[in-house]
Amino acid sequence: MQLQVARIGKPHGIRGEVTVQVLTDAPGDRFVPGTEFVVEPASAGPLTILSARWNKDILLLGFEEIETRNEAETLRGAKLFIETEELEDDDDEGWYEHELVGLEARVGSEVVGKIAALTTLPVQDLLTVKTPEGKEILVPFVEQIVPEVNVAEGYVLITPPPGLFGINEEGGAADGEEAASSQAGDDD
Fold first, then answer.
1. Rounded to the nearest 5°, which phi and psi values hold at 184?
2. Closest Cα partner for 12 from 65, 52, 64?
3. Considering the domain 97-181, what is its CATH architecture?
4. Cα torsion for 55, 123, 89, 80, to the nearest 10°?
């Protein structure tokens, strides 16, 4: 099984190091010199760690195959995977991006889009839902809003608070303000 452990960010310095978004609970075990990663897109890999170091809260990786900043720039956005037989986390409370991407996003029984990405942030994670119209909606990945994830049946159940989809859409805040002012006018 392939397990995603990081996403490559921007280059750091001139010797080909890159910043990475860590997506594992065990970075000390996963990012050691000599570790080889399967890379998505495949044209960017495989990559083998030459060096790993922390700069404040940011992990910097150097790869044997990358020597310059220009080469490092071509890796931006690439995903790093390891081959593993183990499950990193046995609890039912976590999912990896590769498990969620492509699942239907449902509000009740209505399909409102598909999961396009999972963004891991320090405070809370966000699901990106791509609607049939091509819009991307950011949904906080918290139990109150996403009470059910059913990978086996291929869907995520979302119970959005009023306006969530409108607020995150382009021009949504203005639409919401107009709706609020028209509702206030209706009471007169």
1. -65, -35
2. 52
3. Roll (2.30)
4. -50
Rounded to whole angstroms, how far apart are CA atoms 35 and 26?
Answer: 14
Show the tokens assigned to 188. 């007169």
- State whether the Cα torsion 92-96-97-103 is positive or negative: negative
> Within 13 Å, how many C-alpha atoms sit on residue 105's CB side?
27
Q: How far is CA 148 from CA 6, 118, 124, 145, in A?
A: 25, 15, 17, 9
To the nearest 10°, the Cα dihedral for 41, 42, 44, 45? Answer: 140
Cα dist. 12→19, 39, 71, 113, 125 in Å? 6, 19, 12, 36, 25
pLDDT digits 0-9 by tens, 68-98: 999 999 999 998 988 776 544 444 456 777 7
CATH code of the domain made up of 2-83: 2.40.30.60
3-state secondary structure of 124: coil
- What is the pTM (predicted TM-score) of this model? 0.51
Please give the average per-residue pLDDT across 126-136, as a whole number.
88
CA distance 63 to 58: 16
Domain ranges in the chain are 2-83, 97-181
Q: What is the pLDDT of residue 188?
A: 44
Beta-carbon contacts of 54 under 8 Å, excluding residues fewer than 6 positions away, are: 60
